[in-house]
Amino acid sequence: MLKLCGFHVSNYHNKVRLALLEKGIAFEEDSGVRPSQKDDYLAKSPMGKVPYLEVDGTRLCESEVILEYLEEAYPQKPLLPKDPLARAKVRELVTVMELHLELVARRLYPGLFFGGTLSDGTRQSVEKDLAKGVRAFTALAKFGPFIAGRDLTLADCAAAVHLPLVSLSTKLAFGRDFLEGMPQVKPYLRMLAERPAFAKVNADRKAAQEAMAQAKK
């Protein structure tokens, strides 16, 4: 039995969870795990991050590594195309969304969500770098009807958790959604949200966010 460890507010945890649910893989979950730099946690996840996956006494960390393992170990319902070039195009989309959209927008999070400050320098650098990321994403995304084309792939699992954060953080920081120039994004995300796996993950994320907000009061 696989065991996924993390928490329901983490977009990287949820990305892996979506893949597990869509592939129909039986798994256990510990959703009470938080990132930590303590020695006992680093023994489980060397970078101190979530999620990590327990597999027969072995632990895997880094969400993309976990997803690659799931594709190889559970090929019955693939979330990557068979063709090597098509597989690479899906990975390309995931890389752009994670490194050049969400990771850039993440620089805004301390000032927006965690009580920090948001300097003009940070705003300017994020705006400049996000413009490049959005340009690349616009060139690569297919919406046909899924983000990489006809079939649901790992790129959709990534898009579902990363794109809403990019939209929210840029609205709050700049007064506009940096993805608003792509009218396909909102109906695409609504389409994904109607799938049972995505609906469940979204509901659990909202419940976890509400619980965290109540705990702070």
Can you describe what's shown?
The chain has 217 residues and is an alpha+beta fold. The chain has 2 domains: 2-73, Glutaredoxin, CATH 3.40.30.10; 84-216, Glutathione S-transferase Yfyf (Class Pi), Chain A, domain 2. It has 9 helices and 4 strands, in the order βαβαββααααααα. The chain has helices at 11-23, 39-42, 63-73, 84-105, 109-113, 120-140, 154-174, 185-193, 196-216, and strands at 2-5, 27-30, 52-55, 58-61. It has a 4-stranded mixed β-sheet, covered by helices on one side. Helix 1 (11-23) links the parallel strand 1 (2-5) and strand 2 (27-30). Helix 7 crosses helix 8 (185-193). It is globular, with a radius of gyration of 17 Å. The chain starts with a strand and ends with a helix. The model has no long low-confidence stretch (mean pLDDT 97).
Task: Put the structure in a nutshell.
With 217 residues, this protein is an alpha+beta fold.
Instruction: Please state roughly what percent of the residues sit in beta strands, choosing from under 5%, 5-15%, 15-25%, 25-35%, 35-45% or over 45%.
Output: 5-15%
Return the structural class: alpha+beta
Task: Supply the number of helical segments.
Answer: 9
**Average pLDDT figure:** 97
Shape assignment: globular
**Whole-number radius of gyration?**
17 Å
> Which range best describes the helical content: under 10%, 10-25%, 25-40%, 40-55%, 55-70% or over 70%?
55-70%
CATH architecture descriptor of the largest domain: Up-down Bundle
Distance between the termini: 38 Å
Domain count, please report it: 2
Give the helices and strands as they follow along the chain: EHEHEEHHHHHHH
